[in-house]
Amino acid sequence: MKILTSKQQVREWRKSLSGSLGFVPTMGYLHEGHAELLKQSVAQCDNTLLSIFVNPTQFGPNEDLDRYPRDFERDTQLAKEIGVDAIFYPSAEEMYSVQTSITFDSGKMADALCGKSRPGHFDGVLQVVTKLFHIVQPDDVFFGQKDAQQLALIESLVEAYDFPLHVHRVATVREADGLAKSSRNVYLSEAERQEAPIIYQALQEAKELYLQTDSREKALAHAREVISTKTSGTIDYIELLSYPNLNERESASTMILATAVFFSKARLIDNLIIERVRTHA
């Protein structure tokens, strides 16, 4: 397995390949969710590249850039065991070697969910994935459904700007108790770790209530009550939107029920996709 640290090394390696290239962009500190992305790439593509880059442009001034967990040796070992062919591990100076006044605006789809409370976050996400897609030139890219808003924005970017690649959606990987796998779970205290699975339970109950009643208000109120009364977390948002458009006024056959919850040192996100079967008289 090769370790590539410069854009030029990636380009030269890419030219040497035969067959398809699958790509999994990450910020490292890999967990089973990342592992599933890599396994699907290895299974479906002739070659797989993993990138590890903690992207500074998607962090706000009071967010956890400096303390974001990192363990490159562990990540390398996991990638090697899965069968990854190469890792792109650039520095910030390498990724942003050219200064420009050109900026990204992620638009209305970023005004809901995480984008509402993290202004500029998705501008940074779209900036870095655009750079990575141009550097790597993959045939297939793999993203997790846990970051559903990010996934929707990247799919929109790829379609609108004609990137010659296919985006694969990979289902959220969970702990045995339902907690969505996340690099930030390490920040939870022991007591918070016991409470955190209630987020998923609340979403499941709210989903069933919505399917039974077709009431957005009842579903959201139920999820809010369960999380507020059964955890010590503070709710950032709970929303039920069309997916992937992320429109709160639209009632679609595919909806997303999503939440973000602050604990003392971690902000956890989770979501469920709701497929509604419409009946016609």
From TrEMBL:
<keyword id="KW-0963">Cytoplasm</keyword>
<dbReference type="InterPro" id="IPR003721">
    <property type="entry name" value="Pantoate_ligase"/>
</dbReference>
<dbReference type="Pfam" id="PF02569">
    <property type="entry name" value="Pantoate_ligase"/>
</dbReference>
<feature type="binding site">
    <location>
        <begin position="181"/>
        <end position="184"/>
    </location>
    <ligand>
        <name>ATP</name>
    </ligand>
</feature>
<feature type="binding site">
    <location>
        <begin position="144"/>
        <end position="147"/>
    </location>
    <ligand>
        <name>ATP</name>
    </ligand>
</feature>
<keyword id="KW-0547">Nucleotide-binding</keyword>
<feature type="binding site">
    <location>
        <position position="58"/>
    </location>
    <ligand>
        <name>beta-alanine</name>
    </ligand>
</feature>
<protein>
    <recommendedName>
        <fullName>Pantothenate synthetase</fullName>
        <ecNumber>6.3.2.1</ecNumber>
    </recommendedName>
</protein>
<comment type="function">
    <text>Catalyzes the condensation of pantoate with beta-alanine in an ATP-dependent reaction via a pantoyl-adenylate intermediate.</text>
</comment>
<feature type="active site" description="Proton donor">
    <location>
        <position position="34"/>
    </location>
</feature>
<feature type="binding site">
    <location>
        <position position="58"/>
    </location>
    <ligand>
        <name>(R)-pantoate</name>
    </ligand>
</feature>
<keyword id="KW-0067">ATP-binding</keyword>
<comment type="similarity">
    <text>Belongs to the pantothenate synthetase family.</text>
</comment>
<feature type="binding site">
    <location>
        <begin position="27"/>
        <end position="34"/>
    </location>
    <ligand>
        <name>ATP</name>
    </ligand>
</feature>
<keyword id="KW-0436">Ligase</keyword>
<feature type="binding site">
    <location>
        <position position="150"/>
    </location>
    <ligand>
        <name>(R)-pantoate</name>
    </ligand>
</feature>
<comment type="pathway">
    <text>Cofactor biosynthesis; (R)-pantothenate biosynthesis; (R)-pantothenate from (R)-pantoate and beta-alanine: step 1/1.</text>
</comment>
<dbReference type="InterPro" id="IPR042176">
    <property type="entry name" value="Pantoate_ligase_C"/>
</dbReference>
<comment type="subunit">
    <text>Homodimer.</text>
</comment>
<keyword id="KW-0566">Pantothenate biosynthesis</keyword>
<dbReference type="GO" id="GO:0004592">
    <property type="term" value="F:pantoate-beta-alanine ligase activity"/>
</dbReference>
<feature type="binding site">
    <location>
        <position position="173"/>
    </location>
    <ligand>
        <name>ATP</name>
    </ligand>
</feature>
<dbReference type="InterPro" id="IPR014729">
    <property type="entry name" value="Rossmann-like_a/b/a_fold"/>
</dbReference>
